[in-house]
Amino acid sequence: MNFTEKIKSEILSKPLKEKHCRKAFIAGLIRGSGVLYEKDGELGLEFKAPDEQTAMALTNSFKLLFDYDIREVSVVEDRTHKKDKFLLSISGNKAVEILTELEVLTEVDGEVAVNLNFYGALTEKECCLRAFIRGLFVSSGLCTLPTENGNSSTGYHLEIYFSSYVTALETSNKLAEYNVITKIVGRRGGYIVYIKSVEEIKDFIAFLPAPVSVLALTELMINREMKNISNRQKNCDLGNVNKQIEASAKQISAIDKIESTIGIESLKKELAEVALARKENPEETLNELAERLSLGKSCLNHRLRKIVAIANEL
After folding, report:
1. Of the ranges 70-74, 181-185, 241-245, 291-295, which is most confident?
2. Hey, what long-range contacts does 215-219 have (CB within 8 A, 24 or more apart)?
3. Fewer CB in a 10 Å sphere around the end CB: N or C, the chain?
4. Does residue 51 or residue 207 have the better pLDDT?
């Protein structure tokens, strides 16, 4: 189960208690991927559910809230995502009444028309607005996270798809009122409201709310940060080791030059002692060598630099 499915499963596993919130949630589901049609003079709506759990949630909600049985359910192949989707269809006078109550349809001059305004009386309460956007995300949202090895091309990414720029902008503005900052881009013949910042993604999921998913995302963020810190430490350690190897090689080369020309015994006693210790222990770090000679690190380093300087003058 990917992270999108985990969020949606969490949302669907905790049905909303208040009737007005449940209506807003259904309205969001329908707005996200519903398509109106007319057949034999009757207005109807087809809704493509991303999975069986969503299809069951919608069917049960229509029965409980409106005493309407959705009998037309079929399985359709989604070649893009390589998995089946469930197509639900409602029609008839009762369906028109329900869709009007859900503010999907409206009456203009005695004629039934599509209500282009997503955010009306149904979403005036904050709890209902959250429920509506939960529905939008379940039906047309997705969230991807970087893979553990960091090879994901998308990184952190959350989006909701809209067929209209106006509704995408309305949703983006509504989320901004709750400090969830999004961007909009045209894609796949429509528009997506999207987030790339992991902190903003976490804020969006908390807004829904889906607390279990928030915790899962937080845990992932912490693990990735710890891994990054560990990698930086390893890189730093490796860099230090390389520097130590280079310094040791330079010191030994200088000692060999002194030994082959003027002889180590020509050095002052304290320098000769250091030269012999370094030559005999080329693999030791500065700290290890200083401890062996019972010297301070700075004192040892000063003497080694003096030896290199003497060699450079020969």
Report:
1. 181-185
2. 216/3, 216/6, 217/3, 217/145
3. N
4. 207
CA–CA separation, 184 and 192 (whole Å): 6
Residue 174 has pLDDT above 90, yes or no: yes
What is the overall mean pLDDT for the chain? 84
- Which phi and psi angles does 71 have, rounded to 5°? -95, -25
Distance (Å, rounded) from C-alpha 49 to C-alpha 26? 12
The CA distance from 203 to 156, in Å, is 13
- The set of residues, in sequence order, having a beta carbon less than 8 Å from that of 23 and lying 6+ positions away, is 65, 101, 102, 122, 128
- Tell how strand 141-144 and strand 111-114 pair up: unpaired
Q: Which of 15, 21, 30 minimizes the C-alpha distance to 126?
A: 21
Q: Per-residue pLDDT averaged across 290-309, rounded?
A: 85
**What number is the average pLDDT over the span 265-293?**
83
Task: Find the radius of gyration of the CA atoms of the chain.
Answer: 34
Quick check: 111 pLDDT over 50?
yes
What span, in angstroms and rounded, lies between the C-alpha atoms of 260 and 275? Answer: 13
Q: How far apart are CA 86 and CA 79, in angstroms?
A: 13
| Full-model pTM | 0.69
User: How is residue 119 written in tokens?
Assistant: 């955010």
Q: Confidence band (pLDDT; 50, 70, 90) for 81?
A: low
Ordered domains of the chain (ranges, CATH): 3-209 (3.10.28.10), 229-313 (no CATH)
Residue 152 predicted with pLDDT over 50: no
